[in-house]
Amino acid sequence: MCGIVGYTGPQSAITPLIEGLRRLEYRGYDSAGIALGTPNKLFVEKRAGKLGNLEAALNATLPLTHSGIGHTRWATHGGPTDRNAHPHLDNEGKLAVIHNGIIENYTQLKAELIGRGHKFESETDTESVAHLLSDLRRSHGGDLSAAMREAVKSLRGSFTLLAIHADAPEVIVGVRRNSPLVVGLGKGENFLASDVAAFIDYTKRAVELGQDEVVTIRPDGIEITDLDGNAVKPKEYAITWDASAAQKGGYQHFMLKEIFEQPKAVADTLLGRLGKNNEILLDELHLTKEEVRSLKKIIVLACGTAYHAGMIAKYAIENWAKVAVEVEVASEFRYRDSVIDKDTLVIAISQSGETMDTLMALRHAKVEGAKILAVCNTNSSTIPRESDAVLYTHAGPEIAVASTKAFLTQVVAVYLIGLYLAQTRGVMDSDEVREIFDSMNELPAKIEQILETVEPLRELTRSFAKENSVLFLGRNVGFPVALEGALKLKELAYMHAEGFAGGELKHGPIALIEEGSLVIAVLPFGHEYGLDEKMLSNVQEVKARGAKVIVIAEEGAEVTGAAHTIRIPSAPALLQPILATVPLQVFAYEMAVARGNDVDQPRNLAKSVTVE
Ligand code: AGP
Question: Is the pLDDT of residue 486 over 80?
Fold first, then answer.
């Protein structure tokens, strides 16, 4: 997610702004910029790359100003370039806007504004807001707060916005919808930021803004209203965190914070993906209808957790679109003479977009004539740049090495691809697509539900802290979930963990079971596969040999033989991995904490493996 700061007060604004952005660097970004308020003119500087590039560009003739806004951008719409960096300005250069989130209806807004004579500089969704605010401010007699209230009524999506105008440079206006914005209350100065880490060195008095609330800050005070201009009483609170805790949003580790960010990550990845005729909108796939209809095979290339997302893709895409899907460990595919032709689509899944194994496999496939679609969480990274098309996930920066929210959004992305292919190939009609999409839209709330009841699981996990091995079992789409649960435990708890297809147990792995073995069984979902009985037989088989079994099961599903049952909300079978994975992430996280391991930076691991 982007970092946002605003300051107005007696200090030279550049200091709290740059320091604030530095405090937000942990959020991950690929460009940075500031707009300083001086009478009648804004001073604006922005640069791609790290904060140091911006600071180097801030020349010695920097004006002494006492207000401004600053931004670190995590690119979504438009690559990480100077031009796309925030702030974005109106055509007069007197109004600046910074933004975190997604303006879902920006293309139609941009078309209307161009029609009204506005000239655009960038590829971003944000710039539309700068031009819209400029028009509305004029129609509201120069009242930026009133302009913001009206502008938000025509915006769709999730966003935090800050704006400043040269005619009243000491005033900064902000608004939030499904994206964080907090006010810092100082003595004769006030702050705005994406999170309190940005101003915690100046004040520990904060006000959290509610949904669709517009805040106006001046050095001598703040004003909060709803979109109709009705005053909202600020709810002040004292910040009890130190700066490090603030960067983790109060969570003990980035991984836990990112586990809890999953509802928003999934919601953001789904945002704007269903058209008014119940069609899946994936224009970025750049595939003609003929190319989609002539597809004979899909090959998924990925590593680690991303590979598990690819396995889930196989179940979903083959079920919905009736296209054969092969899932390949990228480092193996690279050295195989695979069968590829012009009717093969290769999907390269990568959070970082820099994994060398996946990149080299993608290059191998390209040489063989395949079309390449990247599914990636990092805008303009190498893998998307070398692909024919890219579907970006919107998990936001994932700081912890162990992938959590990126994984769930990768699975959402391949679901969207499966539905898009199914509808384009005429295999599913719009009602069927709509029904599944509606079920996907229910997933964020269901993840929240799991996270609200996570404490008993954390306590149960601590009771197993001394285990030296855990086996994970799953069938159908529960099998990749079992593999992902085992990988998380390996990565974080440095212990032996292995995932098996339930049906494979009797073909060897059951020899591992002895008195006291710990087994986690991921029950299949919904009875349509008739696999729950078979999985429960697996539970009985290992229990009979002395195993303790933790069963992950849907609410209402019959469970026998379990020592502990972790219930998750029900969902259509193919969508259940999004929910069943969450308890396994928490289990691995808590095991690492109980063992005193470095949760966010586990030993021997890198967030992006850029060597083969
Ligand atoms: C996930 O928890 C691991 N850190 C690792 O398996 C990771 O998924 C793998 O290295 C692929 O990374 P990528 O998604 O950035 O390509």
Answer: yes
For 146-185, what is each residue's pLDDT tens digit?
999 999 999 999 899 999 999 999 999 999 998 889 999 9
Which residues' Cβ are closer than 6 Å to ligand 1? Answer: 303-306, 350-352, 355, 358, 401-403, 491, 608-609
User: 119 to each of 64, 116, 129, 305, how far by Cα in Å?
Assistant: 30, 9, 13, 43
List the helix and strand counts (H, then E) for the chain: 20, 24
Q: Of 468, 548, 532, 538, which is closest to residue 500 (Cα–Cα)?
A: 538
Question: In whole angstroms, what is the distance from residue 46 CA to residue 88 CA?
Answer: 10
Question: Once rounded to an integer, what is the mean pLDDT over residues 595-610?
Answer: 87
- pTM of the predicted model as reported, rounded to 2 decimal places: 0.81
H or E element that contains 304: helix 304-321
Q: Is residue 490 part of a domain?
A: no
Task: Return the H-helix or E-strand segment holding 201.
Answer: none
The reply to whether 376 belongs to the active site is no
Q: How many C-beta atoms surround the C-beta of residue 184 within 10 A?
A: 28
pLDDT for 1: 64
- Pinpoint the alpha helices (H) of 190-334: 243-247, 254-260, 262-270, 289-293, 304-321, 330-333
Average pLDDT over residues 24-44: 89
Is 607 an annotated catalytic residue? yes
Task: State the total domains in the chain.
Answer: 2
Provide the token pair at 433.
Answer: 């697509």
Range of the domain at 322: 251-441
262 shares its domain with 240: no
Nearest CA to ligand 1 atom 6: 304
Residues 146 and 214: their CA atoms lie apart, in Å, by 9
Residue 381 CA to ligand 1 centre (angstroms)? 15
For 247-303, write each residue's pLDDT tens digit.
Answer: 888 899 999 999 999 999 999 999 999 999 999 999 898 889 999 999 999 999 999
DSSP string across 95-129: EEEEEEEEETTHHHHHHHHHHTT-----S-SHHHH
Q: What type of residue sits at position 220? A: D
Q: Which of 190, 220, 245 is the last residue of a domain?
A: 245
Residue type for position 211: Q
Residue identifier of the C-alpha nearest atom 4 of ligand 1: 402
CATH code, domain with 47: 3.60.20.10
